[in-house]
C-alpha cells in the first residue's frame, strides 16, 4: 500500500516535471501550430492556406501578418483571423483565437499563449485536467447507467406501443361488429317504427270513419248548435297558447340577461371589437408617423400637417365609437373634457396616472381589470371551459352506460392533460370476445323476439329494441372516441426507438420562485402561479434530431410575441426538468434531463476523449 | 327587444376606458405635451408682428467696471390699450430694466438684462454653468464711442469686430469693423418683451394655468421673455438640441411656404416613442444656435433653463414686401429667467465652437475604455446572464469593453442596491469582467423610492433634501419604484451629499471597475404634467421648477460625475452617461439620444442628432445601436452597427420586450458582419482617442458636420447623411433596406481614398457608389495620416501594448499630416504632461514624427509601443525600401492590403515592420 502510494507520487512528480519542461520554451517554428499541421510548415516557402500568397520560413511567426487568413502567424497575435493551438498536455488541447496571444490573460492551462513575459501563467493543466477527467468519468458513468435505463425504457415503450396497437386493432374489429349490430338494430327500430306508424294510421282512419259516421248522424239532428260550441271550445286553447308565448319570451329575456351577467364572455367580444378599432387607430398613427418621417420638400415640417390628419382620424375613431349604442354619453363626456378622445387621463388618480405612463415602457398592467393579457387569458380559459363542458357533457352521456363505469369523468378530463387513461380491461383485452358474443346474442334475441306480424305491436318489445339501439350506439361512439384518441397518440413521432413513448402520458414539473412550470410533451407547457395558468406553448415538434422539444403558439404577450418554450434534453438518470429560463421576453428555455438522451454511441466518444486526456496524447480538438 | 348594450352600461364604460388606455399605450403622445398655443407666453409672443409692441430705449448708457451699462425705459409714455392682443401689457411704467454688455476674450459679447434689484423677487440666474473663471477672461472696455447724434454707442469686441448698442429703440449689433452690415443683431425687429414679476393685488386675479388636469399655481404671475435675433449673411442655422430630425440645418418653423409648425421647443422631456422628425422637445436642451454662410459663421447662446420656444423664421415671415436676403431671423421665447445671452463672432465655424466652449467648458477627457464598444440591454437579468453574454463575446471573438445593467438589477428600483436573488455577488461579477479588462455600468436615477427602510430615502428626507411641491411638502411623484421623491440637486450641499453616495463604502457592491448611468433625469415623473415635475415645485433658494427645469438633469449629472471623481480620489476619470443635458454637460460626461426606435428613419435621424450635439459642445454622444423600441430586422441591425461604430459613443441597447439581439444571434453571416463593424471601431481607437483629446482641448467635436471641415464648400452645408470623423475620415450611412447604390458627395479641394480598398475618388463631386453589405462607404481624405491598431483583443484594455499601423493618404503634392495622442487611458496624469502627443508629417518621401507637447511641460508617460506597419496611399510605384533614422536601419517595402480583414487585395505600398517607437523622434525615408 505504502509502496504503491510512493510510486504513484513519484510518477505524478515526474509527470509534473515533464509537463512544465515541455511547456516552457516553444520554438518559433512550432509555436501555436497543431501537431497534425506541423508538416504543412516544413518547407522553406509556405502557402497561405487561402491560397492568396506565399511566405518564407523566416516570415513564420515573425509578428507581421502576411496571410489574410493568418497562416503565417499561428503563434502570434499579428493576424486578426489567426488561430493559436495550445497543447495543454495533461488536459485537452485547445485551439483559440490569436487575439488571445500575449494579451495578458492566461487562456491555455499550459500558459503557452502568454510567452512575452508580461504575465506569468502557471501550468494548471494537470489539476484542471484532473477535474475535467473526473467530470468526464462521471459523465461516462451517467451515460453508462443511462444507457441501461434507456434500454429498459425502449423495451417498455415497445411493449406499450404493441399493446396500444393491439388495443387499437381490437377496438377496430369491435367497432366493425358493433357498427353492424347497431345498423341491424337501427333497421329493426325503423321497421318497428314503420309498423307502428302504419298501425297508427290505420287507427286514425278508423276513428275518422267513426267520427264521420257520428257527425253525419248528429248533423241531421241539431245543426245550428255547432258554431257556438266551437267558439267556447277554442277560447281556452287560444289563451293558453298566448300564455305559453309569454312564458317563452320571459325565458328568452332572462337568457339574455344571463348572458349579460356572464361578463367575461360578453365583455371580451365587445372589447375585441373596440380593441380592434383602437389598434387600427394606432396603425394609422404609426403609418402617418412613418410618412411624416420622410423628408419633406423644401424646408417645411410637412409632417405637422399630417399630424392634423391623424387628429382628424382620432375624431373619426371617436365618432365611430360613439356609434356603439349606449356609449355615446360616456364617451362624449370624455370628449367634452379634453376635446380629444384618444388620450384623456383626467379623472385617474395620481397613482393610476403614474402606473399608466410607466406601463408604456413596461407594457404591464396599468389599471386593474383593463389588462389585455388578462382578458385574453380569461377568454382562453373561458373557451377551454366551454370545451371541457362539452367534453364532460359527452362523457356524462356515456356515463349512463353502466358498462363504462370505470371511465369516470375526472379520468377523462385528465386524459386531456396526459394522465394515463386506463380502459376497463373486460372491454378491451381479456373478456372482450365473450362480451361481444354476449352482445351479439342479446341483439339476436331481441331481433328474433320481435314479432312483426303481431298486431298491435308489442309495446314493451319495441321499447326494448329502442333501448338496445340507444345503448349500443352510445357504446359504439365510446369505442370510436377511444380509437380516435389512440390514433391521435400513435400519429406522433416518438423518436428513433420510440424512446419518448412514455412521455406521452407524462408531465414534468419544476418549481421556481412563485411559478410552477409544467411541461407535458406532445401536449402543452404552462406556467402556473396559484390558480392562474399561462400557456407557454402547445406541442410543436422535436428539433435538432430529438435533442430539443419545441412548444409554440402559447398565450400572447402584451404587445409581444406568442409565448414559446424550447426544452433542451440531456442525458440524465431521471426524467427531470432541471432549469427553466426566459432569456427574451416570453421566449422560454428549459433543460430536461432524461435517460432517453443517454446514447450508446456517445459513450465511445467520451471514452476516447478521456483516453486522450489520460495519455496526454494531443488529438485534434477544436473548441471553436 | 332592447340591445344588450343598452342594458349594461358598466361594461361599455369599461370598454370605453379600455379604448382610451389602449390608444395611450402606443406611439408618441402628442396631446400629452403642450404645444405653443397651449403655452400662453409662446402664443402671445408668436402672434406679434415686428415693432408692434411698445419699444424700449436705452438710457444712461455708460461704462462702469469695464462694461457697458444702461437702463431700459419705455420709448414713449404708454397709451391706454396699446396692444390689444397683449392682455398683460399694462405694467408699471416706472419699473425699469437694467442692461449690461460685457466682452470676453476670443470674440464673445455678453448681454444681461434683468429687473431692478429692488423688484419684489429676484429672477433666477442659472448658476454653475458658466466656467467659474470666466470673469478672468473679461476684457476691460476702455471707452465707448458715440456718433455725434448720440443715437448709439459702440465698443471693441474682438480684432475686426465691434459691438453696437443702438439707443432707441434699443438694439444690439455685432459688426465687422467699418461695416454697417451687422453679423448678429438682437431686437432689430422690435420683438423684445420682458414681463416683470408682479405681486398679487387681489384675490380676483387668476394667474393659474391648467393643462390636462394639472394646475400650475403660477404664484408670481406671467414672467416670460422674448426677443428676436438675426443672423446676417447666414445660409443656414444649426444647433438648439434636442430634437429628432432628418435635417442637420434647422428648418424654418414659420413664414411663407412653411406648413404650420410648432417652434423648436427646449423643454427636457421623457418622450415615449418619439418621432424621427419633429420640433418637439426631447430629453435635453442647449439654447445655443450657430449660423453658417459662405462669408462667415456666428453663434448665439441664451443661458436660461426655463422652457424655451424658438422659431426659425423663413424670409418674408413678417409679410414684408421685400424679404431680407442672406439673413435668418429667429424668435426666442422663454417662460421665465433673465436675459443672459452671448454673441459669438466666429468668423470660422470652429471659432464659434471655441468661443462657446470658452464660456461653458471643454468636454471631459474620457477613459479609453469608454471610447470602445458598450453592450447594454434592459435588462441582463442575473449574474448568470451577465456571465453568459460575456462568454459569448469571447466565443465569437467580438471585442467589447463595458457591460451595462439597467433598472432591474436593483432591489425594487432602489438605486445603489442589488437584487439579492439575481445579483447575490456583484463584486465577484465585476471582478470577473475586470479580469478580462472589462468594465460594468449600473443605472442610478434621480427618483428615490419613498420607503423609510431605504437608507437613501430616509437620509434625504430627514435632511430635507428633496424638491418641494407648491404646498411646501416633499414632492411626491410616480416613477419606476412607484411613489418617489427627487433630490434637489440645484443645492450644492445636496450635490455633495449625493456625490458621497458613490464611495465604495456607501455603494455596497461597487468596485473600481463600475461606472454609472443617469437616466430619467429630465426629470421623468410619470404622473406629472407632461411626464415631468410641476412647474410650481420649489427648489433651493425658493426657485421655482419652471425656472430651473432644463438644468435639473445637468446638476444631477454633475453631482454623479463628482461622486465618481471623489470615489477615485480625483485620480480616476469618471464615466457617467446621462439622458438629460444642458449647456455645459460636456464637462461631466456622455449623453445619448434616448429611447429611439428600431426603424430606418431613426437610424437616419441619429446622424443629424449626434452632429447637432457635437456642435453644441456635447462631443461624446451616441444613439442606441439597433434602436431601443422594437425589433430591428437583421439588415437594419447590421447597418446600425456599421454606422454606430463611428458614433463617438458606441453602445447597443434594447427594450426589455424586444427579442435578444446580441451580435451572434442572427446567423454566422450577420455575426461576421457585426464583428467586422466592431473591429473597424477597435482598429480606429487610437484615432478616436486622439480626437477625444482634441475635443477636450478645443471643443471641436469628434463627429463633425462636413461644413465644419469644409466651410467654403456650399454643397456640404445641409448634409446630414454623411459626416466627418475628425479631420480625416468621411462616413456615409446606409439608411434604406436593400439599398443598391448611394450617392456620396466628397467635398472639394482634395481627393479621397476608400478606406476598404484604397480606391481614389475626386473631391467636389457626387459619386454614385455601389453599396456592399459588408460595410458602409467610408473615405480617408488625401493629405491625412490616421493611426490604427489592427490587432484585435477581447477589449481595449489588452490593446495597450499592441503595435500601431499608420495609414498615410497622400495629396497631390505627395504630402500628409496626422496626429497621435496616447496617455494611460484612465487617470489625470495627462494634466501634468504624462502623455505622448506626436505629429506625423510626410513630405518629400520622408515621414517625420515630431513631439507636439509643450516644451516646458513636466510629467512623463512611457510606452514601448512601436509602429508595425505604414501604409502609403497614392505613392507612385517604385519604392524599394525604407531607411529609418536614427540608426540608419532599413525596413522592407512591399505591396500590401489596406486592411488585414478578409477579401482585401494588395493595393498600397506598405512598410514592413519599421518598428519605430511612438514615443521617439524619428524619420523614415522611402527610397
From TrEMBL, chain A:
<dbReference type="Pfam" id="PF12999">
    <property type="entry name" value="PRKCSH-like"/>
</dbReference>
<dbReference type="GO" id="GO:0017177">
    <property type="term" value="C:glucosidase II complex"/>
</dbReference>
<dbReference type="InterPro" id="IPR039794">
    <property type="entry name" value="Gtb1-like"/>
</dbReference>
<feature type="compositionally biased region" description="Polar residues">
    <location>
        <begin position="262"/>
        <end position="272"/>
    </location>
</feature>
<dbReference type="GO" id="GO:0006491">
    <property type="term" value="P:N-glycan processing"/>
</dbReference>
<feature type="domain" description="MRH">
    <location>
        <begin position="505"/>
        <end position="600"/>
    </location>
</feature>
<feature type="region of interest" description="Disordered">
    <location>
        <begin position="191"/>
        <end position="432"/>
    </location>
</feature>
<dbReference type="InterPro" id="IPR028146">
    <property type="entry name" value="PRKCSH_N"/>
</dbReference>
<feature type="compositionally biased region" description="Basic and acidic residues">
    <location>
        <begin position="278"/>
        <end position="296"/>
    </location>
</feature>
<keyword id="KW-0256">Endoplasmic reticulum</keyword>
<keyword id="KW-0732">Signal</keyword>
<dbReference type="InterPro" id="IPR002172">
    <property type="entry name" value="LDrepeatLR_classA_rpt"/>
</dbReference>
<keyword id="KW-1015">Disulfide bond</keyword>
<feature type="signal peptide">
    <location>
        <begin position="1"/>
        <end position="23"/>
    </location>
</feature>
<dbReference type="InterPro" id="IPR036607">
    <property type="entry name" value="PRKCSH"/>
</dbReference>
<dbReference type="InterPro" id="IPR044865">
    <property type="entry name" value="MRH_dom"/>
</dbReference>
<protein>
    <recommendedName>
        <fullName>Glucosidase 2 subunit beta</fullName>
    </recommendedName>
</protein>
<feature type="compositionally biased region" description="Acidic residues">
    <location>
        <begin position="406"/>
        <end position="425"/>
    </location>
</feature>
<dbReference type="InterPro" id="IPR009011">
    <property type="entry name" value="Man6P_isomerase_rcpt-bd_dom_sf"/>
</dbReference>
<dbReference type="Pfam" id="PF13015">
    <property type="entry name" value="PRKCSH_1"/>
</dbReference>
<feature type="compositionally biased region" description="Basic and acidic residues">
    <location>
        <begin position="374"/>
        <end position="405"/>
    </location>
</feature>
<feature type="compositionally biased region" description="Basic and acidic residues">
    <location>
        <begin position="191"/>
        <end position="261"/>
    </location>
</feature>
Automatic annotation (TrEMBL), chain B:
<dbReference type="GO" id="GO:0006491">
    <property type="term" value="P:N-glycan processing"/>
</dbReference>
<dbReference type="InterPro" id="IPR017853">
    <property type="entry name" value="GH"/>
</dbReference>
<feature type="domain" description="Glycosyl hydrolase family 31 C-terminal">
    <location>
        <begin position="699"/>
        <end position="786"/>
    </location>
</feature>
<dbReference type="GO" id="GO:0030246">
    <property type="term" value="F:carbohydrate binding"/>
</dbReference>
<dbReference type="InterPro" id="IPR025887">
    <property type="entry name" value="Glyco_hydro_31_N_dom"/>
</dbReference>
<feature type="domain" description="Glycoside hydrolase family 31 N-terminal">
    <location>
        <begin position="99"/>
        <end position="311"/>
    </location>
</feature>
<dbReference type="GO" id="GO:0090599">
    <property type="term" value="F:alpha-glucosidase activity"/>
</dbReference>
<feature type="signal peptide">
    <location>
        <begin position="1"/>
        <end position="27"/>
    </location>
</feature>
<dbReference type="InterPro" id="IPR000322">
    <property type="entry name" value="Glyco_hydro_31_TIM"/>
</dbReference>
<feature type="domain" description="Glycoside hydrolase family 31 TIM barrel">
    <location>
        <begin position="363"/>
        <end position="691"/>
    </location>
</feature>
<dbReference type="InterPro" id="IPR048395">
    <property type="entry name" value="Glyco_hydro_31_C"/>
</dbReference>
<keyword id="KW-0378">Hydrolase</keyword>
<keyword id="KW-0732">Signal</keyword>
<dbReference type="InterPro" id="IPR030458">
    <property type="entry name" value="Glyco_hydro_31_AS"/>
</dbReference>
<keyword id="KW-0326">Glycosidase</keyword>
<dbReference type="Pfam" id="PF01055">
    <property type="entry name" value="Glyco_hydro_31_2nd"/>
</dbReference>
<dbReference type="Pfam" id="PF13802">
    <property type="entry name" value="Gal_mutarotas_2"/>
</dbReference>
<comment type="similarity">
    <text>Belongs to the glycosyl hydrolase 31 family.</text>
</comment>
<dbReference type="InterPro" id="IPR030459">
    <property type="entry name" value="Glyco_hydro_31_CS"/>
</dbReference>
<dbReference type="GO" id="GO:0005783">
    <property type="term" value="C:endoplasmic reticulum"/>
</dbReference>
<dbReference type="GO" id="GO:0005975">
    <property type="term" value="P:carbohydrate metabolic process"/>
</dbReference>
<keyword id="KW-0256">Endoplasmic reticulum</keyword>
Amino acid at each position: 500500500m505504502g509502496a504503491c502510494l510512493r510510486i504513484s507520487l513519484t510518477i505524478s512528480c515526474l509527470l509534473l516535471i515533464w509537463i512544465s519542461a515541455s511547456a516552457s520554451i516553444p520554438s518559433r517554428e512550432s509555436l501555436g501550430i497543431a501537431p497534425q499541421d506541423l508538416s504543412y510548415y516544413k518547407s522553406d516557402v509556405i502557402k497561405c492556406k487561402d491560397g492568396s500568397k506565399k511566405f518564407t520560413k523566416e516570415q513564420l511567426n515573425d509578428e507581421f501578418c502576411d496571410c489574410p487568413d493568418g497562416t503565417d502567424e499561428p503563434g502570434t497575435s499579428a493576424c486578426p483571423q489567426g488561430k493559436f493551438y495550445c497543447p495543454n498536455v495533461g488536459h485537452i488541447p485547445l485551439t483559440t483565437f490569436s487575439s488571445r496571444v500575449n494579451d495578458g490573460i492566461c487562456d491555455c492551462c499550459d500558459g503557452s499563449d502568454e510567452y512575452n513575459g508580461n504575465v506569468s501563467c502557471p501550468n494548471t493543466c494537470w489539476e484542471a485536467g484532473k477535474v475535467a477527467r473526473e467530470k468526464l468519468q462521471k459523465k461516462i458513468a451517467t451515460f453508462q447507467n443511462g444507457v441501461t435505463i434507456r434500454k429498459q425504457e425502449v423495451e417498455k415503450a415497445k411493449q406499450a406501443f404493441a399493446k396500444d396497437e393491439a388495443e387499437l386493432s381490437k377496438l377496430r374489429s369491435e367497432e366493425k361488429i358493433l357498427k353492424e349490430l347497431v345498423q341491424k338494430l337501427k333497421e329493426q327500430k325503423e321497421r318497428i317504427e314503420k309498423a307502428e306508424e302504419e298501425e297508427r294510421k290505420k287507427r286514425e282512419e278508423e276513428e275518422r270513419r267513426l267520427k264521420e259516421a257520428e257527425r253525419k248522424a248528429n248533423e241531421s239532428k241539431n245543426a245550428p248548435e255547432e258554431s257556438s260550441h266551437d267558439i267556447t271550445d277554442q277560447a281556452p286553447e287560444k289563451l293558453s297558447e298566448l300564455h305559453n308565448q309569454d312564458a317563452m319570451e320571459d325565458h328568452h329575456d332572462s337568457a339574455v340577461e344571463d348572458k349579460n351577467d356572464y361578463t367575461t364572455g360578453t365583455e371580451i367580444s365587445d372589447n375585441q371589437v373596440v380593441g380592434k378599432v383602437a389598434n387600427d387607430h394606432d396603425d394609422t398613427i404609426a403609418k402617418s408617423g412613418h410618412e411624416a418621417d420622410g423628408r419633406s420638400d423644401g424646408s417645411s415640417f410637412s409632417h405637422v400637417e399630417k399630424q392634423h390628419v391623424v387628429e382628424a382620424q382620432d375624431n373619426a375613431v371617436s365618432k365611430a365609437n360613439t356609434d356603439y349604442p349606449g356609449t355615446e354619453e360616456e364617451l362624449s363626456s370624455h370628449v367634452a373634457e379634453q376635446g380629444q378622445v384618444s388620450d384623456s387621463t383626467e379623472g385617474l388618480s395620481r397613482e393610476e396616472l403614474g402606473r399608466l405612463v410607466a406601463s408604456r415602457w413596461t407594457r404591464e398592467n396599468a389599471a386593474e381589470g383593463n389588462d389585455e393579457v388578462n382578458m385574453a387569458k380569461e377568454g382562453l380559459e373561458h373557451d377551454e371551459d366551454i370545451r371541457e363542458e362539452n367534453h364532460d357533457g359527452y362523457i356524462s352521456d356515456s356515463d349512463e352506460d353502466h358498462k363504462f363505469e370505470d371511465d369516470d369523468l375526472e379520468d377523462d378530463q385528465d386524459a386531456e392533460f396526459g394522465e394515463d387513461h386506463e380502459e376497463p380491461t373486460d372491454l378491451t383485452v381479456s373478456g372482450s370476445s365473450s362480451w361481444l358474443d354476449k352482445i351479439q346474442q342479446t341483439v339476436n334475441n331481441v331481433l328474433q323476439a320481435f314479432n312483426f306480424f303481431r298486431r298491435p305491436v308489442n309495446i314493451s318489445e319495441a321499447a326494448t329494441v329502442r333501448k338496445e339501439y340507444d345503448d349500443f350506439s352510445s357504446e359504439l361512439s365510446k369505442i370510436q372516441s377511444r380509437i380516435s384518441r389512440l390514433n391521435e397518440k400513435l400519429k406522433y413521432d416518438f423518436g428513433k426507438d420510440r424512446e419518448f413513448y412514455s412521455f406521452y402520458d407524462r408531465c414534468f414539473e419544476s418549481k421556481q420562485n412563485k411559478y410552477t412550470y409544467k411541461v407535458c410533451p406532445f401536449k402543452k407547457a404552462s406556467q402556473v402561479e396559484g390558480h392562474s395558468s399561462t400557456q407557454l406553448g402547445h406541442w410543436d415538434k422535436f428539433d435538432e434530431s430529438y435533442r430539443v422539444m419545441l412548444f409554440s403558439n402559447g398565450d400572447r404577450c402584451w404587445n409581444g410575441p406568442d409565448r414559446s418554450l424550447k426544452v433542451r434534453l440531456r442525458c440524465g438518470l431521471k426524467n427531470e426538468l432541471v432549469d427553466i429560463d426566459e432569456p427574451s421576453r416570453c421566449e422560454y428555455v428549459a433543460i430536461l434531463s432524461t435517460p432517453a438522451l443517454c446514447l450508446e454511441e456517445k459513450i465511445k466518444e467520451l471514452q476516447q476523449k478521456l483516453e486522450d486526456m489520460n495519455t496526454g496524447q494531443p488529438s485534434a480538438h477544436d473548441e471553436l | 327587444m332592447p340591445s344588450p348594450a343598452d342594458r349594461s352600461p358598466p361594461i361599455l364604460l369599461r370598454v370605453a376606458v379600455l379604448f382610451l388606455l389602449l390608444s395611450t399605450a402606443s406611439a408618441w403622445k402628442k396631446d400629452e405635451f403642450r404645444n405653443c398655443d397651449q403655452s400662453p407666453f409662446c402664443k402671445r409672443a408668436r402672434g406679434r408682428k415686428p415693432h408692434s409692441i411698445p419699444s424700449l430705449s436705452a438710457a444712461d448708457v455708460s461704462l462702469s467696471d469695464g462694461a457697458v451699462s444702461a437702463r431700459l425705459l419705455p420709448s414713449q409714455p404708454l397709451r391706454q390699450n396699446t396692444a390689444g392682443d397683449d392682455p398683460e401689457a399694462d405694467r408699471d411704467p416706472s419699473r425699469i430694466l437694467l442692461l449690461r454688455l460685457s466682452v470676453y476674450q476670443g470674440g464673445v459679447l455678453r448681454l444681461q438684462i434683468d429687473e431692478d434689484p429692488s423688484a419684489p423677487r429676484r429672477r433666477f440666474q442659472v448658476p454653475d454653468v458658466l466656467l467659474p473663471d470666466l470673469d478672468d477672461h473679461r476684457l476691460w472696455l476702455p471707452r465707448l464711442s458715440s456718433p455725434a447724434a448720440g443715437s448709439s454707442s459702440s465698443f471693441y469686441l474682438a480684432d475686426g469686430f465691434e459691438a453696437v448698442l443702438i439707443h432707441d429703440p434699443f438694439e444690439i449689433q455685432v459688426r465687422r469693423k467699418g461695416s454697417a452690415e451687422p453679423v448678429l443683431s438682437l431686437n432689430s425687429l422690435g420683438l423684445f418683451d420682458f414681463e416683470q414679476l408682479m405681486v398679487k393685488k387681489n384675490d380676483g386675479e387668476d394667474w393659474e394655468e391648467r393643462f390636462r388636469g394639472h394646475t400650475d399655481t403660477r404664484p408670481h404671475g406671467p414672467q416670460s421673455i422674448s426677443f428676436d435675433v438675426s443672423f446676417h449673411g447666414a445660409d443656414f442655422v444649426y444647433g438648439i438640441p434636442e430634437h429628432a430630425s432628418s435635417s442637420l440645418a434647422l428648418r424654418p418653423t414659420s413664414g411663407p411656404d412653411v406648413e404650420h409648425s410648432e417652434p423648436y421647443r427646449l423643454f427636457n422631456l421623457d418622450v415615449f416613442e418619439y418621432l424621427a422628425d419633429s420640433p418637439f422637445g426631447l430629453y435635453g436642451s442647449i439654447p445655443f444656435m450657430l449660423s453658417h454662410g459662405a462669408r462667415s459663421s456666428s453663434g448665439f447662446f441664451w443661458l436660461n433653463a426655463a422652457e424655451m420656444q424658438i422659431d426659425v423664421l423663413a424670409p418674408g415671415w413678417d409679410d414684408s414686401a421685400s424679404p431680407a436676403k442672406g439673413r435668418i431671423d429667429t424668435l426666442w421665447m422663454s417662460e421665465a429667467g433673465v436675459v443672459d445671452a452671448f454673441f459669438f463672432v466666429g468668423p470660422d465655424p470652429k471659432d464659434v465652437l471655441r468661443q462657446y466652449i470658452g464660456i461653458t467648458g471643454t468636454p471631459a477627457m474620457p477613459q479609453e475604455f469608454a471610447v470602445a464598444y458598450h453592450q447594454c440591454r434592459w435588462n441582463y437579468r442575473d449574474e448568470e446572464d451577465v456571465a453568459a453574454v460575456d462568454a459569448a463575446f469571447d466565443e465569437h471573438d467580438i471585442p467589447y469593453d463595458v457591460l451595462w445593467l439597467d433598472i432591474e438589477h436593483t432591489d425594487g428600483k432602489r438605486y445603489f442596491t442589488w437584487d439579492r436573488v439575481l445579483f447575490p455577488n456583484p463584486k465577484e461579477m465585476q471582478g470577473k469582467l475586470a479580469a478580462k479588462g472589462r468594465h460594468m455600468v449600473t443605472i442610478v436615477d434621480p427618483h428615490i423610492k419613498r420607503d423609510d427602510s431605504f437608507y437613501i430615502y430616509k437620509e434625504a428626507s430627514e435632511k430635507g433634501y428633496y424638491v418641494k411641491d407648491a404646498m411646501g411638502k416633499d414632492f411626491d411623484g410616480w416613477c419606476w419604484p412607484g411613489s418617489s421623491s427627487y433630490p434637489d440637486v440645484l443645492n450644492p450641499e445636496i450635490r455633495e451629499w449625493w456625490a458621497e453616495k458613490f464611495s465604495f463604502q456607501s455603494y455596497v457592491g461597487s468596485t473600481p471597475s463600475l461606472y454609472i448611468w443617469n437616466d430619467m433625469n429630465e426629470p421623468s415623473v410619470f404622473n406629472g404634467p407632461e411626464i415631468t415635475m410641476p412647474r410650481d415645485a420649489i427648489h433651493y433658494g425658493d426657485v421655482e421648477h419652471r425656472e430651473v427645469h432644463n438644468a435639473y438633469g445637468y446638476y444631477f449629472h454633475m453631482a454623479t460625475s463628482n461622486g465618481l471623481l471623489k470615489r477615485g480620489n480625483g485620480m480616476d476619470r469618471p464615466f457617467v452617461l446621462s439622458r438629460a443635458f444642458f449647456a455645459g454637460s460636456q464637462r461631466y460626461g456622455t449623453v445619448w439620444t434616448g429611447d429611439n426606435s428600431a426603424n430606418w428613419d431613426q437610424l437616419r435621424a441619429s446622424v443629424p442628432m449626434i452632429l447637432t450635439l457635437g456642435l453644441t459642445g456635447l462631443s461624446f454622444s451616441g444613439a442606441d445601436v439597433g434602436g431601443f423600441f422594437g425589433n430591428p430586422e437583421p439588415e437594419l441591425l447590421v447597418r446600425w452597427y456599421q454606422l454606430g461604430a463611428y458614433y463617438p459613443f458606441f453602445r447597443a441597447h434594447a427594450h426589455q420586450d424586444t427579442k435578444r439581439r446580441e451580435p451572434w444571434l442572427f446567423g454566422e453571416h450577420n455575426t461576421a458582419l457585426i464583428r467586422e463593424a466592431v473591429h473597424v471601431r477597435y482598429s480606429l481607437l487610437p484615432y478616436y482617442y486622439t480626437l477625444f483629446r482634441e475635443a477636450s482641448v478645443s471643443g471641436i467635436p469628434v463627429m463633425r458636420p462636413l461644413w465644419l471641415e469644409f466651410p467654403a464648400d456650399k454643397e456640404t452645408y445641409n448634409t446630414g447623411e454623411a459626416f466627418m470623423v475628425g479631420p480625416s475620415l468621411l462616413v456615409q450611412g446606409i439608411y434604406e433596406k436593400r439599398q443598391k447604390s448611394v450617392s456620396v458627395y466628397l467635398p472639394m479641394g482634395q481627393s479621397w481614398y476608400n478606406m476598404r480598398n484604397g480606391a481614389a475618388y475626386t473631391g467636389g463631386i457626387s459619386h454614385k457608389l455601389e453599396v456592399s453589405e459588408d460595410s458602409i462607404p467610408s473615405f480617408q481624405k488625401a493629405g491625412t495620416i490616421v493611426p490604427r491598431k489592427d490587432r484585435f483583443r477581447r477589449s481595449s484594455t489588452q490593446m495597450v501594448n499592441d503595435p500601431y499601423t499608420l495609414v498615410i493618404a497622400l495629396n497631390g503634392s505627395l504630402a500628409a499630416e496626422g496626429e497621435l495622442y496616447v496617455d494611460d487611458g484612465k487617470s489625470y496624469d495627462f494634466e501634468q504632461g504624462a502623455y505622448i502627443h506626436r505629429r506625423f508629417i510626410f513630405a518629400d518621401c520622408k515621414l517625420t514624427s515630431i513631439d507636439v507637447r509643450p516644451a516646458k511641460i513636466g510629467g512623463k508617460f512611457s510606452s514601448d509601443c512601436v509602429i508595425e506597419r505604414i501604409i502609403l496611399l497614392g505613392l507612385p510605384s517604385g519604392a524599394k525600401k525604407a531607411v529609418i533614422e536614427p540608426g540608419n536601419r532599413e525596413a522592407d517595402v512591399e505591396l500590401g492590403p489596406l486592411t488585414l480583414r478578409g477579401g482585401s487585395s494588395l493595393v498600397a505600398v506598405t512598410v514592413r515592420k519599421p518598428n519605430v517607437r511612438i514615443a521617439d523622434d524619428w524619420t523614415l525615408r522611402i527610397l
